[in-house]
């Protein structure tokens, strides 16, 4: 069975226009070509799709169902074509937990001013590649290294590591904490996208860990006092909560913020995005 898009377009045109003659005009072909195309579609499907009289053309019961499916197929194909042709008019930047922290609003505003022809969209995808592998974005903000065989990336800035504790936790009364202060606690981590593992601590003083896969769950558990967390400072900017206190971990290495993209298919706006983000981080 071979069904072609031109056959589906022909069927929909006949139904919408009401006659073979008007369908031919709408499609820019001859009436004979419309008749042949419809006949070929009916042969391919093995069923009659239209009732034809001297006065009108109406779909059969099967024809009504086929026309409905044809409209959806044609809409999907038209969307695919628009995406392929005009995809570079949009730039989708994915992120897993926090986008760019306090730089997020400035990045959006400056991008709109400098590159109005490329519409910017920030997309939250809680996956290891922040949406790259899933096809949800063109660039991704990540805070861990990715597979260098598939992806390229550039470090655009550094962020401090912060401890997240319940607001009534004794550590919340301090201005900063050390890694040793957390070694006896239970650390809530996201192994897929997070920046924290127990390996940050010496082998003999590593905290116990529990796992989560969502930032809202992470925040809820920590605010209840059952676990503590460690995260990039952008999380504190993106998710301030009355029940949570964020404190710097002064002896923990900072986190590198990377912009990543597919090695074999970089978006044309990749370099401008890297340059703008680097400038924002550099200028604080």
Automatic annotation (TrEMBL):
It comes from the Bacteria. GO terms for molecular function: DNA binding; DNA-binding transcription factor activity. The keyword DNA-binding applies. Keywords: DNA-binding, Transcription, Transcription regulation. InterPro entries: LysR_HTH_N, LysR_subst-bd, WH-like_DNA-bd_sf, WH_DNA-bd_sf. It holds the Pfam family HTH_1. Residues 3-60 form the HTH lysR-type domain. PANTHER family: HTH-TYPE TRANSCRIPTIONAL REGULATOR CYNR, TRANSCRIPTIONAL DUAL REGULATOR HCAR-RELATED. Belongs to the LysR transcriptional regulatory family. This is LysR family transcriptional regulator. It comes from Streptomyces antioxidans.
């Amino acid at each position: 069975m071979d069904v072609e898009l031109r056959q589906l377009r022909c069927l929909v045109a006949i139904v919408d226009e009401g006659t073979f003659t008007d369908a031919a005009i709408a499609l820019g072909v001859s009436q004979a070509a419309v008749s042949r195309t419809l006949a070929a579609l009916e042969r391919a499907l093995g069923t009659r799709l239209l009732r034809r009289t001297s006065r009108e053309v109406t779909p059969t019961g099967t024809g009504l169902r086929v026309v409905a499916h044809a409209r959806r197929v044609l809409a999907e194909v038209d969307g695919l074509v628009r995406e392929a042709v005009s995809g570079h008019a949009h730039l989708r930047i994915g992120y897993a937990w926090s986008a760019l922290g306090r730089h997020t609003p400035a990045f959006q505003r400056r991008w709109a001013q400098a590159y109005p022809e490329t519409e910017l969209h920030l997309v939250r995808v809680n996956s290891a590649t922040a949406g790259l592998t899933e096809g949800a974005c063109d660039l991704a903000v990540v805070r861990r290294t990715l597979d260098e065989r598939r992806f390229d990336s550039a470090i655009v800035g550094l962020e401090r590591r912060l401890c997240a504790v319940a607001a009534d936790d004794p550590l919340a009364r301090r201005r900063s904490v050390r890694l040793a202060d957390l070694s006896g606690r239970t650390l809530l981590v996201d192994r897929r996208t997070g920046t924290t593992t127990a390996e940050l601590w010496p082998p003999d003083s590593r905290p116990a860990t529990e796992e989560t896969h969502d930032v809202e769950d992470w925040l809820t558990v920590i605010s209840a006092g059952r676990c503590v967390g460690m995260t990039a400072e952008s999380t504190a900017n993106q998710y301030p909560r009355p029940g949570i206190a964020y404190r710097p971990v002064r002896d923990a290495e900072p986190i590198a913020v990377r912009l990543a993209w597919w090695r074999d298919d970089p978006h044309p706006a990749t370099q401008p995005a890297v340059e703008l983000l680097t400038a924002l981080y550099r200028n604080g």
